[in-house]
Write a structure and sequence with these properties.
Elements lengths: L7 E5 L3 H13 L3 E5 L2 H5 L7 E7 L7 H11 L5 E5 L4 H9 L4 E4 L4 H33 L3 H11 L4 H8 L3 H15 L4 H8 L2 H7 L1
Parallel strand pairs: 1-2, 1-3, 3-4, 4-5
Length: 209
């Protein structure tokens, strides 16, 4: 259960009764809930960076739910979205999921199912934040490498032996070993296995690709 963390869930729906009922339900689970009648109010709210799950109506006045989904890809990429709609046809649901929504529920929805999916979304948000923090740490440490240390590191990650790296960079094997040792120290890698786990993570490969 997530009751101890008091995670924040935001609800955006132009129907006041829907907003109130969802927030009452979430409060029973021990979650914080902040509701908005439109997407612009949510975007302008200081609570946005703290939100760990967004329950979002598809059809909204002004900025629609699907347009907000696109905006949040840059503004809050860690934030999982659960779409709700009274007009939830299959093509709309498929499109929302294809663009990254974690779920799509048609009104009226089962309250227990919604709670379960909110809990899963919050857990996913926390995982994404942790991964983003780890990636920032990786990028910060990589930025601390000298250009030569980075060249040596790239050679090592490509699976090249020290002799081959030395030949390609026109430096001695001893110099390669020195740069390699300094790079691994800066990255906090004790061995090659640590180095690959630290630098060649799935998130980093996706980002660089």
């Amino acid at each position: 259960m997530l009751t101890e963390t008091r995670s924040l869930v935001c609800v955006i729906d132009d129907d006041a009764m829907v907003r109130e009922s969802i927030c009452l339900l979430l409060d029973m689970l021990g979650l914080q809930c902040t509701a908005f009648a439109d997407c612009r109010s949510f975007l302008d709210s200081p609570t946005l960076p703290h939100c760990e799950c967004l329950i979002l109506d598809v059809r909204m006045p002004g900025i629609s739910g699907t347009v907000l989904q696109e905006i949040l890809k840059d503004k809050a990429p860690h934030l999982p979205i659960i779409f709700i709609s009274g007009h939830g046809d299959i093509p709309l649901a498929v499109e929302a999921m294809r663009k990254g929504a974690v779920d799509f529920m048609q009104k009226p929805f089962n309250e227990q199912v919604l709670l379960e999916r909110v809990e899963k979304a919050i857990a996913l948000c926390q995982e994404r934040k942790l991964e983003a923090h780890k990636q920032l740490n990786v990028d910060t440490r990589l930025a601390d490498l000298t250009p030569r240390e980075r060249e040596v590191l790239d050679g090592i990650l490509a699976g090249l032996p020290n002799k081959r790296v030395a030949s390609q960079l026109d430096i001695s094997i001893k110099t390669v070993e020195q740069h390699r040792a300094k790079a691994m120290h800066k990255l906090g890698a004790r061995n090659l296995a640590d180095l690959f786990l630290f630098v060649a993570s799935p998130a980093r490969r996706e980002k660089s690709g």
